[in-house]
Design goal:
Elements (H helix, E strand, L loop, with lengths): L3 H21 L6 E6 L1 E2 L7 E2 L1 H13 L3 E2 L2 H9 L8 E8 L3 H13 L3 E5 L23 H9 L2 E5 L12 H19 L5 E3 L7 H9 L4 E3 L18 E2 L6 H8 L4 H11 L6
Parallel strand pairs: 1-5, 1-10, 2-3, 4-5, 5-6, 6-7, 8-9
Length: 274
């Protein structure tokens, strides 16, 4: 967790950035995609507490944000249309069981659409071993996935086993991407059009494989808003962390942390937010 001084300095910089964006009228007809991993009480950066998650979803409703599913977002832009101002899409990476036990009831109560990107090869098993510093966390079951799909949750593919795609051989790359789509479609009986790059890492070869697999759009972990002019295979998203306050959450929605996150990713690892 960050120190109090670091948090105050970080927030002050974000407030200045968000204010400048509002003054310039930046991205009035762009959407903000936010993403989570786990919704749980565990003290881990990728675990947002259920109470905090509920407060964040309630803030979206109370402050006039317009929830939109990613398939709807893609159709809107592909049709040459604008999204509503303050459009927001909610996503989850990997497919942890707490997405069903903790997040799904809140999303249902508030009638919020969401998209969960499944690491399909681990669904229904004992463990979803995709976080670098955490093991033993259970994934969703296919029965839970089907129930959520019946109640308005969309699903996308996140490969079969969460590999580093840019380092994968061609055959393995194709298998991870195409195989994940086929497996999800087999269980849900519906077409899957969205993909999410594991840890946000991709290159031209990976994008070409995603297109060959028949996907229509893909999400990264690069910060920013999604506009009609954004490459649909490089959609940026905004990470929501455990220690984000409601003030932080509001600033993230307004793009206040985009520059800070861009600089951080440039220092740590290209296209990665974890």
């Amino acid at each position: 967790m960050r120190s109090r001084v670091a948090r105050l300095g970080r927030r002050a910089a974000a407030e200045v950035t968000a204010f400048a964006s509002r003054v310039r009228g930046v991205n009035r007809h762009a959407a903000r995609i936010i993403y989570y991993h786990r919704i749980d009480t565990e003290e881990h950066r990728s675990c947002v507490a259920p109470k905090a998650f509920a407060e964040q979803m309630e803030l979206l409703r109370s402050e006039g944000w317009q929830p939109i599913g990613l398939d709807s977002l893609h159709r809107t832009f592909a049709g040459g249309n604008r999204v509503a101002e303050r459009s927001v899409a909610i996503t989850f990476d990997d497919g942890f069981a707490d997405n069903y036990t903790r997040a799904f009831p809140i999303l249902t109560r508030l009638e919020m659409p969401a998209t969960i990107f499944l690491t399909a090869g681990f669904i229904g098993r004992d463990e979803l071993p995709v976080l670098r510093d955490r093991r033993g966390v259970p994934p969703l079951t296919w029965e839970q996935v089907a129930e959520m799909a019946r109640h308005g949750v969309d699903f996308g593919a996140h490969t079969l086993s969460h590999p580093e795609l840019t380092a994968s051989e061609d055959l393995a790359l194709e298998g991870e991407i195409t195989g994940s789509r086929r497996l999800i479609e087999q269980h849900l009986g519906r077409r899957i059009t969205g993909f999410c790059y594991p840890r946000g890492r991709f290159d031209d070869r990976v994008v070409a494989a995603v297109k060959r697999a028949g996907f229509g759009w893909a999400c990264t972990t690069r910060p920013g808003a999604v506009a009609a002019t954004t490459d649909p295979f490089e959609w940026p998203r905004t990470f929501i962390a455990r220690d984000d306050t409601l003030a932080d959450f509001r600033l993230k929605l307004e793009g206040g942390f985009d520059l800070l996150h861009t600089l951080r990713q440039a220092r740590v690892a290209p296209a990665s937010a974890r």
